Amino acid sequence: MTGPRPGARLARFLTSRGAIQDPAWHRAVLAVDRAAFIPETVWVRDSGDPAVFRPYPRDTDPDIQRWIYEDYALMIQVDDGHPVGDDGSGRTPTSSISQPSLVVAMLEALDVAEGMRVLEVGTGTGYNCALLCERLGDENVTSVEVDEGVAEQARATLDRLGYKPRLLVADGAEPVDGEQFDRLLSTVAVRRIPPAWLSAVRPGGVIVTPWAPGPGFSSAVLVRLVVEETGAASGRIIGDAAFMLMRDHRYDAVGISAFVNEDAPSVTTGHTTVNPRWVSDRHPGWTVMLGHLVPGLGYASYEAAEDDFAAAGEASVFVVDRDGDSWALGEYVPQVGQDGYEAKRSGPRDLWAEIGAARAAWERTGRPGRDRLGLTITPNGTHRLWADEPGRVLSGRHAWRHQARPG
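That's the Protein-L-isoaspartate O-methyltransferase sequence above. Prediction below.
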């Protein structure tokens, strides 16, 4: 091939760091200019206020010009296209062009061959879709995007560059005309694998998706599932994958105070032997197990004031069921030999007991990291997390031996 290659600069950056291993995907990256898929405005997290994303012009900001050709994700939409700030700033990232090394890792995990048909969930900017077209041909690529504005921009860019995949504006969790594909690639995270994905992939086919079993504990993990003749799908966690959640899988952006009423008559007080600090343990295997075994869990930790030396290290830790009306409070005090922590709870779920049971399951299994964990989805949608092999299912149903007791 002669003449300049549109993606040469990014391909050189990625290959020099070992991020591309498959020559076929290397050729695809060489052929596609990532810059062509980035809109005029991108949003960058404010260094002074990490909860705010401010708009920056793509063509005049030198940092953004550099990031386009390096291993950075860039936000291309906030607040579902309606920035809440008067200056165009936003609070919630809702679409992005993903980190290139992660894009390639997910594409290589598909393990495609010539002639295979791929369903992509989450068209986004269209960059991923263009890489799929380069590798497999336009006629073998179907891409679904729920946001009409994002989809139209991607369609225009792909058309301008000569790509003609099948593009649909639809909910990616729903079936696509009853068709079956050889591969399914999701560029949005899900809390639960949609049942339609299993029926959309032929037996022996592969699903690669970010999976986010629990909010507030870690970014999503990347899973690679193989669909079985029974209609189930099973596979291992293969890495980290920081992706935005599918819209129907998001939680409302409300604080812990929206769930907690310490003055309600249903509140009970007592003690728990479950260490309240366990919910903030960042061990990557534990965060997956906790999110899966205690579904809907959210937490907030309120630390003792820095100048309160008598209470140094103490914290009030709240845990809540974001899908229901249960919550609990644990008062952490760093004392050696203590037999419990002051606690309160309300609602039908005993969250401290569930957290304790999940911790016990993790301990019994030898504190597995993500590299030992896998996931099986049954045809009826049941999610089973396992360690080492699919028969070793991890369960938190065993009662925690030190249930919260009256004070």
